[in-house]
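Q: I'm writing up a methods section and want to include an example of the input and output format. Could you take the sequence below and give the corresponding predicted structure tokens, formatted cleanly so I can copy it straight into the document?
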Amino acid sequence: MTAPSSPVSMIERMTLVMDAFDGASARLTLQEIVERSGLPRSTVHRILDQLVRLRWLDHRGGDYGLGMRSLELGGLAVAHNTLREATAPLLHDLHTRTATTVHLHVLDRLDVVCLDKVSGRGGTALPTRVGGRTPAHATASGKAILAWTDPRQVEAMFRGKLVSRTPRTLPTMDALSQELAAVRGRGGLAYDREESTPGVVCVAAPLRGSARAVAAVSLTGDARRTDLNRLAPFVAETARQASAALFPQDHGTRRRKAKADVPEPAQWPPGALDRLVEGIGGDYWL
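A: Here is the clean output for your methods example:
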């Protein structure tokens, strides 16, 4: 029987080391990792040093455990899975009602990343895919999320430099700031009119509670055949429903506040209306 070949690439060896932490053992010694990975002790020690330095692992005393970077990445994966599960039925319903391609995006540094996409076979062919990245300032989804981000943070993120995708991409930070103010003025609706891809337009709305937006849902189509004004109410309603599902407490508070702000109908004292009519003259009302 031929012995299995030893892993050659550094990524394969690092994966064997990380796989040693199977969940049942939170902390492992160097010798335990060597035994579980099947790698030479010197190789494991060298990989562990690099993983600790990069915060993938934590080294305390004589053993190792998952580091903050592993926990942060795992938390993001769980959060994104929760987001997809909560919004999937709404995204499919939105596609059914509009016959238009639906995207769910989250912000990652200067880009938006596509978490989900719903489209039909007969729809417009779009250069998008789940996991794909696009500059946030050039997309409707990106602008919908950035509009609810602290302006100082937006400025620090871009550092005054905006990558141009098409002749219609926003060219400066001043133009982006004005656009984000307009998005807020529309209650979160954002548009991409061939700013990311020639011939493609998009309308998006943010998913948010009382704080910053965590994602955005969008409708995308061919610029020649897509009426963004017609589609805007559909995407806004889907975003509202998704936000209410993700942040029920925030939206419950908002509804109660809105109800409290509506004044109660004026109550007429008994006989007051009759006296008013008599004072003006009954024939006036006829």
